[in-house]
Amino acid sequence: MTRRNALRSGRDTRRHLGPSRALFAAVLLSPAGALAAPASIAASAAPEERSSAQPANPPSNPPHEVGPSAPASGPSPLAPAPSPGVGTDPAPLPALGASTLNPAATGTAATATAEGVASANESEPDLSEPGTPEPKTENPLRPPGEEALLDAHPVAMEKARFRPGKGLEISSEDGRFSLITRLRAQLRYTFEHDGMLEEDDATQGTDTMQQSLQLRRARLQFVGHIFNKHNKFKAEIGISPKDMGLQSGGGMKHSPMLTWYFEFDYLRDATVRMGQYKIPYNRQRVISSGNLMLVDRSLANGEFNLDRDVGFDLRSKDLGGLGKKLRYYAGIYLGEGRDSYRPTDFGMQYLVRVEYLPLGNFKDYHESDMRRIGKPRLSLGGAASFIDNAKNNRGIKGKTPTDGGRTDVFSATGDFMFKYSGLSVQGAMFYRKGIRDFGTDELPVLDADGNEQTDGNGDLVTAVVEEAPRTALGWHGQVGYLIPHLPIEFAGRYAQVRPIGEDASDSSVKRSDEVVGGFSYYIAGHPTKLQFDYTHGWQRSMTDALAKQYDMVRVQLQLAF
């Protein structure tokens, strides 16, 4: 039987038997169904469903293959008897008895018949079958538009693209959803020479040299929007040992989550950001570590920055619609720093920052003038922060004071960024004042040689050691210049931190200075670059005696994609 006759037979079968009986017949006509059908079913079939043309004993020859290679001529061994004439009944179905039907020979025709039945019944889905989708009906109790939002949104593959340094970007066809994925890693080699000097004799002390090769940063970042372009999000995971604060004993100080926030910018002058992220306090800390002109940030930034915290803020990149010349940030945070999750008191952090760009908008949160701007650009910024009842000696950073008390910390900073034709100049000043509420934790008392003292019974002698606040001033200045027509930049920096007060009881900060010089080779801008710098630093005591000096060489390769 040809495929056309088989399909015609299937349609005729449906007309004689009805949909349900036709489907049942198709199952029985399959090779497995024919073998499994009991003789009683075959015997009870209607006379018009039997065929006297089927021989009692099927031919012993193997059946012909049906397909592109099958012969086009010659009667099929499964073909019914010739019709007596025009207008007679359609060709009858073969007998269903297992003793008279060759499954191998009937497989092809039965399959064709089943295909015809299935094709005829495509418009009649059986909802009793598992996995069959129910017809969509609107529920009047659901909010308008909810079903459309939660429905699948096809991806616009023609708009998918890979941007070096930015990552892989995909979005939905309707523009409601977007996602950008990015990987970034920094491989750093460090050689350091430390000289610990005695305050009363600069010729005495220790002299050590050490080196390290580390994956300094390893980051995975996701950025995008959901439901519409005003609902933005960013998530960044840090998985290097330094990112997670790996301890020598094997524990971790931090979770891998660096940043996770949501931002809603429906209002130009009141964008809302909430989650865990970098506090918008000082410029250099907010600038990504991947967009620095030297290997790492300054000594002053390390002492005074506020890092990350959990909370929310209001902000605007174009306050008043002045052409993006005026920005502001005003936030409230838990004051616990990164990874805060435990219940805490109401000692919060409060922050405000303002920025003014008098010469027009530009990328003032990238340290190098990669675009070699043809017109001068300037950004001025200032911020103030207050942390109530801080648990650490630097606010949300640092360590718990030796006496276990708390500190109210007031901080202020001012900074600027200037760029013009490959030249980039920036600077910042910092001020911090701490007011201590001393605790009662006791520490072992040490003798002049640094040994723990004991009493007559051999017990340790302990006492409350009140730690002074880290009240201090600091500043840094930095300049870099990109060679015309070459992807090479030379940069230099000077930074200083100094205590405020007359002696160690006024401030626990030691005076520190650093001078840094280096260069960067930009293989593909900031995302792919090789950097080298040399640092000379020193510390002085409250009496201005030289206490420590060090030299450090760093080489770093960054890849971001």
Task: Describe the protein.
This protein has 561 residues and is mainly beta. It folds into 2 domains: 3-120, no CATH class; 157-560, Porin (Beta Barrel), CATH 2.40.160. 13% of the residues lie in helices and 39% in strands. It contains 7 helices and 20 strands. The chain has helices spanning 3-29, 31-36, 39-43, 103-120, 146-150, 283-286, 299-304; strands spanning 161-163, 167-171, 178-198, 201-225, 231-238, 257-264, 271-278, 308-316, 326-333, 349-356, 377-390, 406-420, 423-437, 442-444, 462-464, 472-482, 488-499, 511-524, 528-540, 546-560. Strands 3-4-5-6-7-8-9-10-11-12-13-16-17-18-19-20 form a 16-stranded antiparallel beta barrel. The protein has a two-stranded antiparallel ribbon with strand order 14-15. α1 packs across α4 (103-120). The radius of gyration is 40 Å and the shape is globular. 27% of the residues are buried. Residues 1-123 and 199-203 have low confidence and may be disordered.
Features:
561 residues, mainly beta, Porin, 2 domains, 16-stranded antiparallel β-barrel, two-stranded antiparallel sheet, 7 helices
Give the overall form.
globular
Low-confidence stretches: 1-123, 199-203
* Separation of the first and last Cα atoms: 61 Å
> What's the name of the CATH homologous superfamily of the largest domain?
Porin
Q: Which secondary structure elements does this structure contain, and how are they paired or packed?
A:
Layout: H1 3-29, H2 31-36, H3 39-43, H4 103-120, H5 146-150, E1 161-163, E2 167-171, E3 178-198, E4 201-225, E5 231-238, E6 257-264, E7 271-278, H6 283-286, H7 299-304, E8 308-316, E9 326-333, E10 349-356, E11 377-390, E12 406-420, E13 423-437, E14 442-444, E15 462-464, E16 472-482, E17 488-499, E18 511-524, E19 528-540, E20 546-560
Antiparallel strand pairs: 1-2, 2-3, 3-4, 3-20, 4-5, 5-6, 6-7, 7-8, 8-9, 9-10, 10-11, 11-12, 12-13, 13-16, 14-15, 16-17, 17-18, 18-19, 19-20
Helix pairs in contact: 1-4
